[in-house]
Amino acid sequence: MSLSVHIIIASSSGHTQYVSEVLKQSMEGKATVEMTRAEQAEPEDFARGDVLILASGTWNTGGIEGQLNPHMHDLFLKRAAAVDLKGKTCAVIALGDERYHYTARAGEHLSTFVASHGGKECCEKLTIVNEPYGQEDTVKKWGAKFLASIT
């Protein structure tokens, strides 16, 4: 098992953490997966692993709907503002709530970060709308597609 995946997650309610844990379990034996919380991440964490996954829920911070989790937002604007992904293979996980117009817009922000910092997305985003509990099969199926896209 030589493939390593690093997930940087922003999770305050636990939903993004849960989805990332389900994904990690689904890849056991196929990849080594480690996770770093966005509030603890440093620029060098973006270089860890063969593949980088960025995962965040969609928030309504500052009265503006459709934003990143505040921890990911802070990471991107401050500590990781000058990160160069150098063509690194990346994937995106976005969570959201159907009650809002910009349901899972965090995915757009994550993709923009990847593209504007020299990374390349390897597959379609994983988008989880509403409670993640009961959506484990969706996460596992995406994980299989993700692995197929990078191996």
Overall description:
By secondary structure, the protein is of the alpha/beta class. The protein has one domain: Flavodoxin domain (Rossmann fold), CATH 3.40.50.360. The chain is built from four helices and seven strands; from the N terminus they run βαβββαβαββα. Strands 1, 2, 3, 4, 5, 6 and 7 form a seven-stranded mixed sheet that branches. The mean pLDDT is 93.
Which tags fit this structure?
seven-stranded mixed sheet; Rossmann fold; single chain; 151 residues; 4 helices; globular; 7 strands; alpha/beta
Please work out how many helical segments DSSP would assign.
4
Would you tell me the overall average pLDDT? 93
Structural class: alpha/beta
- What would you call the shape? globular
- Total E-strand runs: 7
* CATH hierarchy, class: Alpha Beta
Helix-strand pattern: EHEEEHEHEEH
What kind of sheet is the major sheet?
7 strands, mixed
Q: Mind telling me the C-alpha Rg?
A: 14 Å
Low-confidence stretches: none
Strand proportion, as a percent range, falls in 25-35%
CATH topology: Rossmann fold
How many separate structural domains? 1
The CATH superfamily label reads Flavodoxin domain
Percent range of helical residues: 25-40%
Distance between the termini: 11 Å
- The CATH architecture designation is 3-Layer(aba) Sandwich
